[in-house]
Design brief:
Blueprint: E1 4-8, H1 11-24, E2 29-34, E3 40-41, H2 46-50, E4 61-63, H3 65-72, E5 75-78, E6 80-86, E7 91-96, E8 102-106
Parallel strand pairs: 1-2, 2-5
Antiparallel strand pairs: 3-4, 6-7, 7-8
Length: 108
């Protein structure tokens, strides 16, 4: 029986957790919510960008939502801020930062 996971936060921690969950369950539904514009970027290389050795910040981006979906079958929702977590009803209140829409996403 497949499971459904909602992950709050992307970048290193959330993206790694989502990829690990995918390896553990090929049929599970995984949705990751990231407030920022990137699924994952290289935190380790940030000092090189700040020092000027890496000129473009875009070169630090490791994964975009389309690639994450295609490679791992994970729905990565960037620019989506989780406003609240309703544990009792297993739901998240989420704001799409591009459209301004606020919506509820249920786990079940």
């Amino acid at each position: 029986m497949s499971k459904k996971y909602l992950i709050v936060g992307g970048v290193a921690g959330g993206a790694s957790a989502a990829a690990r969950l995918r390896r553990l369950g090929e049929d599970d539904q995984i949705i990751m919510f990231e407030k920022g514009p990137n699924v994952s970027f290289s935190n380790c290389c940030l000092p090189y960008h700040l020092s000027g050795q890496i000129k473009k910040a875009e070169d630090l981006v490791l994964m975009d939502p389309a690639k994450f979906s295609g490679q791992y079958n994970i729905d990565a929702r960037v620019n989506n801020e989780v406003l609240s977590i309703d544990r009792e009803n297993k739901a998240l209140q989420v704001k799409d930062l591009v459209s301004g829409e606020v919506y509820i996403r249920h786990l079940s």
